Amino acid sequence: MSNRAVDWWVGIFVLLGIAALAVLAFRVGNLSGFQYGQGYILHADFNNVGSLKVRSPVKLGGVTVGEVTGIRIDPKTFQAEVSMRIDPQLKLPVDTGASIYTQGLLGEQYIAIQPGGMPQDLKPGGTITLTQSAVNIDQLIGQMVFSKAEGGSGGSSSGSSANAIPNPPGQ
Amino acid sequence: MSALDFIPELGHRVRESVPRLGAATRFLVLGLGRPFHRHFSIQQWLRQVYGFGVLSLALMVVAAFFTGMVLGFQGYYALVRFGATSALGTLVALSLLRELGPVLTALLFAGRAGSALTAEIATMKATEQLSAMEMMAVDPLAWVVAPRLWAAVFTVPILCVIFDLVGIFGGYLIAVPVLGVDSGTFWSQMQSNVSFRGDILNGLFKALCFGLVVAWIAAWQGYSAQPTAEGVGNATTRSVVAASLAVLGLDFILTALLFS
Fold first, then answer.
1. Residue B162: which of A16, A27, A28 has the nearest Cβ?
2. Distance (Å, rounded) from C-alpha B192 to C-alpha B202?
């Protein structure tokens, strides 16, 4: 086989490899995370983030509008401070709330945001103050067991929310 | 023959294996350093990439396709009990990207290219071609060994990417058209759980290490073979066995380091 043919085949081989890597990166891996690259950062403090992780989705009305970029403990307030990157086209009012919910019974946790009605918008780097922590199943069961044992009406103190968002009726 | 004889025996073994290990390491370092030598030829390197890579491609594609399809079936039957078939895409992709892709590529590579590499170098030694090169002041490390080592390091990650991709496609073909998993769920679950750096690039790094180790073992077995017909045969067998075991052992270490 001539050197020229070898060169051609090796070139094709390398191009195949690069193409396969590109397909893997964009189709299989989530390099599409760059989607929110120009998004702005918001913070929210929670008492308990449950099993929320970096890259967990941030949803508004079920539509993913951003992702969690960092979770850390605020050393002064001892609350968990979650940073998230939000779609730049989305302007949220200052009285927007954030809650941590679970997808399905065993699914991953995500942040759901509920937009408020104030005319002013949250600035990039701003903080969402109305938050509701992740529901801790163990804690709920514990409370239920104790309230049953005391003979009280169970569930009245269950929602372990921090700065309680008005709960939907029936909770 | 006392029962304590195993102690000097052990000492003898260790005393013998240490210089061999040292010589093998020196062989690797010298071989990898040779691209800067005047007898290193890019053309030789290209020919090896052709032989290792292009000619292994069909084998890799077939192996990957079947691996992916089996993963699709087995994953489905394991997950369907828990009603978690939506995680099938993640299962197939992560299994292939993290473990099966690099390891199977390296094992197939050891069988197809590593054995040929050992036999070739051992035959060169048995027919005194290596000595002839030295007589002509051509460095056999630069002319024969270095292009092969570097070709393996270069080729195995590329083969691994292609293996991953074809395997995932095979899994998709079983999951979606045959078993009726939703196509959108399959891909979106995969995308949200596979990280480019953490899974894809780490898998390729593994493949690169495996390529180096397989080529090193194969070339060293050939280079240090007995210069007889039997020696060539023994070296080839040992090359495939040692390279396969080394890949599996190294895989454990790399997994513990990279994915912990």
1. A16
2. 17
B192 CB contacts (<8 Å, ≥6 apart)? Answer: A30, A57
- Give the domain range for residue B103: 37-258
**Which residue of chain B is at minimal alpha-carbon distance from A23?**
B165
Q: How many CB atoms lie within 10 A of CB A157?
A: 11
In a domain, residue B19? The reply is no
Q: Is residue B167 part of a domain?
A: yes
Structure-token match 């891909």, residue found: B187
* pLDDT tens per residue, range B9-55: 899 989 988 998 999 999 999 888 877 777 888 888 999 999 999 99
Mean pLDDT of A106-124: 83
Query: Are A12 and B54 in contact (CB < 8 Å)?
Result: yes
Task: Find where tokens 């759980």 sit.
Answer: B193
So where are chain A's domains?
3-32, 37-150
Q: How many domains does chain B have?
A: 1
ipTM of this complex prediction, to 2 decimal places: 0.83
The answer to the question of residue B94 being in a domain is yes
